Amino acid sequence: MTVDAATDAGSGAARRPPSPGTVPSVVDGAGMLDPSRSVRASITQASLERAFTILMAIAAVGFGAANTTSFFRQLPFLDPFWGPATASVVALSLLAVGASAALQRWAQAAQAACALLFLVALVTFPLTVRDALPPAQSPWPWWLCNVGTIAASLSFASWRAAVYNVIVPVVFVLLRLSPAGGSAGIARAFQDGAYTATLGIAALVLIVVLRRAAAAVDAAQATAVRRYARAMREHATEVERVQVDAIVHDSVLTTLLSAARADTVEARTLAARMARNAVDHLAAAAADGPGSDPLVPFPAFRQRIVDSLTTLAAPVEVRSCPAEGPAMPSSAADALASATLQAAVNSVQHAGSDVTRWVTVESDGPTVRVELADDGVGFDPSTVPSERLGVRRSILERMAAAGGVADLVTAPGAGTRVVLSWPDPGPVTDVRIDVDAVGGGPA
Questions:
Q1: How far is Cα 350 from Cα 339, in angstroms, rounded to an integer?
Q2: Which of 225, 230, 293, 378 is deepest in the core (most CB within 10 A)?
C-alpha cells in the first residue's frame, strides 16, 4: 500500500492532546451530559426564601400564642367590641403567616397583610381602650412589634421596609407616653422603642445581606452553567472536527495518493478497493446520528483489527489477541481500530525494508490496550513539520476525542511503538521517547 510520507508522520507526535475527561461531566464521544442536571448550589434564593418563610411562620404563631395571656389581662380596659375585634384580626393575620409555611406561593402576601394589619392595630390602639392602662402594663401590641417589622422586611421592598422599621418604634413610643398606653415615663418609652428599632433594623439588614448573597450565588451558578454549556458545544465541535479530519486523512487522501501512484494492475485494484472503503466509511459516518453510540462486542472489535491489518501491503504479525474482553462504545472501537490501522500504514510506508511488524491486543478489566510496533528506522518527532496531520489527527487526537490515549515511543534507528489505551488510564508524560527501552523488538 502506498501512503504519502507527508501525511503519515504527523506533527502531533511531540504532544498528546488533553483528554476530554478534564471537563467534569460524562463524555461519551457524542457530547456530554447537561451540567445543569448535576450542578446544584447549596444555597439559592428559593431555598433561602423557604427558610425565611418557615422561620417567620414559627415566630408569628409562637409570639401570637405567647401574647394571648397579656391580651386577656388587658381585656377589662378595652372596648368590649373593638378591643377583641382588633386583636382577632391581628390573630388571623398571624395564623395566615403560619399557614404560609405550607403554602409558599402565598407567603409574601400573608406577610405583607400581617405587617399592614399590625400597623393599623398599633396606630388605632388608643381608640380601642376604654379605661387607661396601668403604667406597669405594656399595650398588648408590644409583644408583636418585631413580628410586624420582620414581616415587613420579608415582604416589602428594602426602602419600604426601612420606613416601616422607623414608623413602628416611633408610634409605639408615642403610644407608651399617652394615657391609653399606660403613661409610662420617657425613659421607659424610649427604652422600649429603641429595643424594637434595634431588633427590627438588625433583622432587615440580615435579610437584605442574605438575599443579595443568595442572588450572587444564583447568578454565579447560572454563569457557570452557561459557560459550561458553551464549552460542551465547543468540545463537541472539536470532536467532530477531529473525526472528520481523521476520516479525510485515512480514507480520502490516502486513496487519492494511492490512485495517483498506481502503475500496476495490482496497485489499481488496491486503489479501487480503497476507494470503495472510503465511500463506505464516509456514508457510515454520515449515518451516525447524535448520541448514537451502541456497544461493540470485543470479538467483533478483535476481528476488525485482524481484518484491517490483512489489507496492508506488508505483513503484520498478530502476537497476542485475546478472544474475550470488554464491550466498548462504537466510537471507542472505531478510534482504536482506525488508529491501529493508521499506525500500521505509517510503519509500512516509513519504517524501511526488511522490517518486522507486530500487533498485540490486551484486555484488563474495562481497559483495552493495543500496541503496534516495528523494528524499523524510527524517527525524531521533533523534526516533523507542523502541517503534517497523520499522527496528530488520525491517532493522537482521534484517541483523545474517544476518551482514550495514544502514546508514541520512538527514536532514530530504534524502531517505533504506538500504544493505544481506552479508556485513558490516567495522566502520563506528554511524549515517551526512550531509545534504550525500544530496542528492535517488543517491549
A1: 16
A2: 378
